[in-house]
Amino acid sequence: MSASPYEQPGFRLAEGGLVDRRVVLAFNLDGRSFTGLSGDTLASALLAAGKRIIGRSFKYHRPRGIITAGSEEPNALVELRSGARREPNSRVTTIELYDGLEATTQNGWPSVDFDLRRINSLFSPIIGAGFYYKTFMWPAAFWERVYEPLIRRAAGLGRAAGLADPDHYEHANAACDVLIVGSGPAGLAAALAAARSGARVIVCDEDFLLGGRLLSDRQEIDGVSGAAWAQSAVAELKSLPEVRLMPRTTVFGCYDGGVYGALQRVSDHWPVPVAHQPRQRLWRIVAKRTVLAAGATERGIVFGGNDRPGVMMSAAVRAYANRFAVAAGQRVVVFTNNNDGWRTARELHAHGIEVAAIVDARAAIPDTLRAGVAGRILTGGAIIGTTGGRGIRAATIETARGRETIACDTVAVAGGWNPNLGLAGHYGSRAIWREDIAAFVPGTPPKGMAVAGAARGAMTLATSLKEGDAAGRAAVEALGMTAFAAALPRADDENFAIQPVWHVTASIQKAFVDFQNDVTAADVALAAREGFRSVEHLKRYTTLGMATDQGRIGNVAGLAMMAALTGRSIPETGTTTHRPPYTPVAIGAFAGHHRGKAFRPIRRTPSHDWAQRQGAVFVESGPWLRAQYFPRADEKNWLETVNREVRSVRDRVGFCDVSTLGKIELHGADVGAFLDRLYVNTFSTLPVGRARYGVMLREDGFVLDDGTVSRLADDRFLMTTTTANAGRVFQHMQFCHQVLWPQFDVQFVSATDQWAQFSVAGPNARRALQAIVDPQSDIGNAAFPYMAAGEITVCGGVAARLYRISFSGELAYEVGVPARYGNSFADILMRAGAPFGIVPYGIEALGVMRIEKGHLSGNELDGRTTARDLGLGRMMSTRKDYVGRVLAGRPALLEPDRMSFVGFRPVDPSLRLRAGAHLVPRGAAIDAAHDQGVVTSVAFSPSLGQWIGLGLLQRGPGRVGERVRAVDPVRQDNVEVEVCAPCFIDPQGERLRA
Amino acid sequence: VPSFILTPASSLGALAWPAAPVSGAAPGVTVAERTGIALCNVLARRDAEAQLADRVRQHFGVALPSEPRHTATSPVAFAWAGPSQWLALGQETDGRAFELQLRASLAGVASVIDQSDDRAIVRVGGPRARDALAKGLHIDLHPSAFRPGDAAVTAVAYIGVHFWQIDASPTYEFAVFRSFAVAFWDWIVQAAAEFGVAVVQAPMR
To answer: For B8, which of A172, A670, A820 is closest by C-beta distance?
Structure first.
């Protein structure tokens, strides 16, 4: 341990505070052991232990200490916890101390106490505002390789864990009549007024103890201490059934319709979350009314040497003494421009902490302030510089009477208060400048929100209580409830007066405006000289207020200085926009439960369990998990398996779960007419018991989807869609029915999940099925020809549906049974089909066979192709209207040069073809100018013994027989291919009709 | 006698077998799969809503709800599922038979489509059910806002659900598309874990 007085314990006051002296907590910073008390923050425990330097500054690596006692802390950031749970840039002032806490200081090398990069300070004259913009401009080639890595290494504060977060995060929703943001005097008064009236109330506070400033000041309410009053108010609120108290919860954003975002730190005060508890919970709170009682944040004064460890905010010094029973120092100089600094002097004196001097920038001080303070009083004075190596040892003060230096180990700075108006401004309402308190107050808050107390500019306790009470009553009355009548809590009202001093221009040292981003008074002046005078420009050019603390203690001083430099008033200069989040929110909290396998819900097919038992390899196909292929023990790779599956289907019989296709059941008298308008081709003429292939367009004339429609009865149809477009097509139909053609008698529902549907394909398909289908259902070629559809029964009376449709090009049936039988039916197909050589096949083989057959799929229906492009132009009826008809006739869509659907095969059959390859004429340069098309789908065809492909080529169908090159610049491929018709198998369709 | 007999299977399988609480604590939440129930979508034919309501009253003795409500007073319950459509719940195991029965009763005034296999019904109850469900449900379940008999069509954890409240204890039933049943189950069990969650047998009603 060092000999410095600041490194020795003994800063804990003998009595008082809201800490439990019986519960001693051990913790560790940079491997050194410390102890604190239950009720401490990491900051108060470190101050009690005399630890001064907590971090090094971002740019100049200057030693920095704790400045505040709240979430506005710019300096004292650490990495909290270790390993995968390490969380960088954690503010020690908001970390609730727990036994076993581990933290590491950041941005110091080799340590924060002795930092070699401090040398940056020597170059500080040249690394002012805009340094990066000006310096790293040229040579341009240096940017990626030299400058950026250099800046990245030097910049940044903490290190991310770099490992997957082992903890769970979750979302939660809450609704209430009145949401109270903040639990200080105004918040508690509002909560009591609303809750006593019977309203559903939620009170959120970022602190782990409710009470706000009442916990940190020595003021009485109703004859008891503020903290005691807060405690009894909280106890009363807790006893009311409709009240939810949420400490450790920051309301960080205000959104549409009374929706608020809040982050609850459920487990941040435990080393590891309790079993089944999330680390953090992201709340979506819907509030009918909201009272913003978020209090105010004390701001600094920009003076020379104001970043030296030991220079702190005055109200923070007071909070450490009153709430945590910690003397931030042993000899304090108070520097103030308002009455509140005097309260710090009074209360420190009452604690027996020496106040060496009170420096008030104001020349005249009301006599009442002088009561109860000790130490010298220097009016009309300002601190112009400080001395001390690793902490302040003296402050140099200039008054009209001259300069003097006063020894001290702490400077308490009282620069006035900024109302915490962030949430009120999230809807774009501009803050209003109030000269009497020298601060911005909220403009018009969002609908349903009222602002009360210090957040609205009430600088005294009695006014805050009164405003909170009034806001609570007004909220319940606005909801039609009767406000409960109770006496207002009594508190002495003091006077608040301020004469703002933003910047001590006589400063003899570097004076900081933004501590976290190392922005100085000189940087603001430079921005003014170089023309970056708008507050938004000032912010971006100097980075003032752009750090994780959002400049909460320095922004107003920065813009006031800019106002002074440019001869404008503060309201003329304006303020920057408040946007969510109020304080940083971890990305993990936004993701919540939805990460890893839970990123999106997985849909399982009705034969999932069966396929799993068969050892299927599964693949994610949109939201679905589908059997990709069914490997056998002796197969060396997936291609071998898929080739076997394809050959089995083409030679014998196979089956595949195709339940994922969208199925929409349509009933009603006008379904035929409805479908005629949805599809390019006609369905009203479809006979009962038949299926037909159809194509539907978007309004803009491009293809939306394809599928089949089967007519099961005069007024009952079943439509199928592609797996990928099921939801989109259903929405499109709802729009068409509800908005465009409500006159139709049509009712439809999704039946996708109702049916376990299997494609049974191959020359033996009928024989395999005949063993399962009940004898009264004739599935022979005469009774049930190609494109027949109907309701049948299977396995002794189970209602099923049968469709003679084929994606593979083989004799095929799709058979649907109620989904509960999916696993069982797959098992029965295996047994019934065994004599005929049946195999299950996955979607890989399904894809190979559809490519061999030249059927379209999502690769071709990519939203940029027309029916004509896909060779389906002749399906487009000229005798009726349908969605997309007019725009499909646009000249550009009728251009003969458009890329159209064809097949390809490599001229050298041993070569592989790649999907995504671009098509370039032989001998032409390989560049975008000669790009004539693209290969959309490829497969190794076991039937042809070579790779084949489908794709889109300019004037494709007219170029059959021509050779072009398929060029894949990404995979360095260049294969000569022959253009061919897209159907490689059985072009006459004889197998289908067998 | 057919050569092959189909065996039905729950979409949740072993997940829904009654089991002790996940976290060992007294269960704040119970979950159960409800089986032995037939479901049909009932959609009013064009301009036939009033006639449908008459027919339902006549055949099943209940008022067809015209707002998001669930009627549980007759052997056939009706849950509002959107404008002019309802989910009918029958004490049946055979969805096809239920479909044909409803079609006969409502011929000419409604389209009836069997959905018995399209949905899984998951029952969520217990003193902390509201807290667990609040982790995914945007709907306010406070007794002043959502009461027994209330129904809603919404989404939970990216899963479309149709749910209604059975009793004030409280108990809710969620109709979930069958292919999402496991995903929904995984979500509710994880959401409820901190309160203690037990898989129980759904009472047959």
So the answer is: A820
